[in-house]
Amino acid sequence: MNVKSTQKMASNLSKLAPSTRYQGSKRRILPWLYDNLKDLRFETVLDGFGGTASVSYLFKWMGKQVTFNDILLSNYQTGIAIIENDSVRLDRSDIEFLLCENGFRYPSFIQRTFEDIYYLNAENKWLDMVSFNIKMLSERYNGDTLKKKRALAYHALFQACLCKRPFNLFHRKNLYLRKACVKRSFGNKKTWDTDFPTLFVRFADGLSKKTFSNGRDNKAICKDIMKTGNKGFDLVYLDPPYTRPNEKRPKDYYSLYHFLEGIVDYENWSARIDWSKNNKCLIKEKTEWEKNSPEENFKYLFEKFQDSIIVVSYGHPGTPSIQKIKHLLQQYKSEISVTKRKYSYKLNHKNGSEMYEVLIIGR
Ligand SMILES: C[S@@+](CC[C@H](N)C(=O)[O-])C[C@H]1O[C@@H](n2cnc3c(N)ncnc32)[C@H](O)[C@@H]1O
Fold first, then answer.
1. 114, 111, 154, 112: which is closest to 131 by C-alpha?
2. pTM of the full predicted structure?
3. Domain span at residue 223?
4. What residue owns the CA closest to ligand 1's atom 3?
5. In the chain, where do the E strands start and end?
6. Which of 36, 120, 205, 269 is deepest in the core (most CB within 10 A)?
7. 185-193: long-range contacts, CB 8 A cutoff, minimum separation 24
C-alpha cells in the first residue's frame, strides 16, 4: 500500500473496525490515535485494557504483533474473535446450528432468573438456547477452531445483547423503559424492537468481513493488568477506567456488563449471582486495580513497563489529573508528549461540559 492509500484508509478506520456500543470504546477516535502513533518505532504491543479490541484492531491493521488483554471474560472472547483470529468465520451452517433448536435438553436459567429484568420472556428463552448452542459447538469442532468459532458467536451475541438494552448496559433492572409507550429522548426503539436473530446475523456477518491476518502471531489474554508479566513489549498501551469529575471511583465495567460475563460462564452463573440485588448482578470481588489508589496503580504500571514505550489514553477532566500522570511518567521516561482533542461523550451533551480525550506518550 502506498502512503496516500494508507492515509485514506486510516481516516476511515472508525468504520473499518467492528462496531460496538461499549462504554469507553475508542473506535470513533482511531484515526486520531493512528496519527499520533504511526511514527513510533515498535513491532510488539500490549493493549493492557483492551475492552472492545478497537485499539488492538488498529495495531493489528498497522501490522504489529498484538497482545490484547482485558480482565472481563466477555471482552476476552472479543479479543480472540477479532485479534487472535485470522481466518476462522461462522458459516451459514454454523449460524443455523446456533440459532435453531437442535433437539438438546435446553437449560432455562436465564428465563427463571431474569424475568422482567433485562429482556422479554421469549428473548430470555432464546438467550438460554443460543448460550447452550454456543457451548455445543463442541459437537462440530474442536481445538483452536472451536475456541475461535465460540468466540465469534459470543461476540455477535454480546453486540446483539447490548443493542437491545436501554443505555446498552446491565446496571439496572429497567426493562420497563423498553416496554413503556412514551416519547423518549434517549435509546433506539427501532433496534430494541429488532429481533435477536436478525441482530445476531448482522453482527456475525459484519465481523466476517472484518476478519483478517496481518501475518503475526497475535494473542488474547484475560488478566488483571496488575498481575500480567512484563514480556518485553516494545509498546504498552493503557486505556484504564477513569474517574470523572463528581465521581468517587473509576467506572466499574464488571457491574455494567455482568450479564455478558454470566453468559460466558453459564454453568457457574447461579453460584456467582448476588441474589439480594434487584438486577441479579454478579458478586463483586475487587481487582488489584480497585484495591489501590489510581496514583499507586499508574506508578506500579509505569515502573513495570519502564522498558517499553508507554502510551496512556485518559480523559480530562479526570482523577488523577493529566499533570499528575505526566509527573509520574517522568520518573521513568525522559521524553513525554501530551496531545488532546475534544471528545464530548454522547451522554454528557446535556451538561455542556467540555471533555477531552488525552494521549500521553512516554519514551
Ligand atoms: C476504557 S475501557 C477500554 C476501552 C478500549 N480501549 C476500547 O477501545 O474498547 C477499560 C477496560 O479496562 C478493563 N479493565 C478494568 N480493570 C482492569 C484490570 N485491572 N486489568 C485489565 N483490564 C481491566 C475493563 O473491562 C474495560 O474493558
1. 154
2. 0.94
3. 3-362
4. 51
5. 44-47, 65-69, 219-221, 235-238, 309-316, 336-342, 356-362
6. 269
7. 188/163, 191/163, 191/164, 192/163, 192/164, 192/166
Residues of the chain with pLDDT under 50: 347-350
**Cα–ligand 1 centroid distance for 73 (angstroms):** 11
Determine the Cα–Cα distance for residues 9 and 232; give it in Å rounded to an integer.
30
Pocket lined around ligand 1, Cβ cut-off 6 Å: 22, 24-26, 49, 51-52, 54-55, 69-72, 75, 224-226, 239-241, 253, 287, 289
Give the Cα separation of 35 and 192 in Å (integer).
Answer: 36
Q: What share of the chain is helix, strand, coil (3-state, %, to 5)?
A: 50, 10, 40
Q: How many CA atoms lie within 13 A of 270 on its CB side?
A: 8
Report how far ligand 1's centroid is from the alpha carbon of 240 (Å). 5
Spell out the residues 6+ positions from residue 361 whose beta carbon is closer than 8 angstroms to its own: 36, 40, 309, 310, 311, 312, 336, 337, 338, 339
Positive or negative: CA dihedral 114, 115, 117, 119: positive
Query: In ligand 1, which atom is closest to the CA atom of 290?
Result: 19
Q: What is d(CA 82, CA 206) in angstroms, rounded to the nearest whole number? A: 11
302 in Cβ contact with 312 (< 8 Å): no
Which pLDDT tens digit goes with each residue over 16-49? Answer: 888 888 988 999 999 999 999 999 999 999 999 9
Q: Report d(CA 235, CA 66) in Å as an integer.
A: 10
Overall number of domains in the chain:
1
C-beta of residue 47 within 8 angstroms of C-beta of residue 20: no
pLDDT tens for 325-350 read 999 999 999 999 999 999 765 544 44
Rounded to the nearest angstrom, the distance between the alpha carbon of 293 and the centre of ligand 1 is 17
